[in-house]
Amino acid sequence: MLFAFVAMVAGFLQFLKRFRQHRPRVHCVVGRIYVGSIWISGFFPNCIARLGRENYSCECATIRSFPR
């Protein structure tokens, strides 16, 4: 939940034109924080949800999430 909140705040800051123009380095750092928090808030719940099903590990959950 914390990472999802961070992603929402960081994502909002990315759309502020004044923020992008006057603080480009901070804009870049906030963008990386946004991407990282989206990845964390999406990856770990996927692992937790699949750990109990058919002996999936976190690696298998992300690689085999789509049927072939």
Task: List its traits.
68 residues; mainly alpha; elongated; DUF2306 domain-containing protein; DUF2306_membrane
Q: Could you explain how this protein is built, in words?
A:
It is a single chain. By secondary structure, the protein is mainly α. The protein has one domain. The protein is built from four helices and no strands. The protein starts with a helix and ends in a 5-residue tail after the last helix. The mean pLDDT is 75. It comes from Cohnella soli. This is DUF2306 domain-containing protein.
List the helices and strands and how they pair.
Elements: H1 2-14, H2 17-22, H3 24-50, H4 58-63
Helix pairs in contact: 1-3
Organism: Cohnella soli
Protein name: DUF2306 domain-containing protein
InterPro entries: DUF2306_membrane
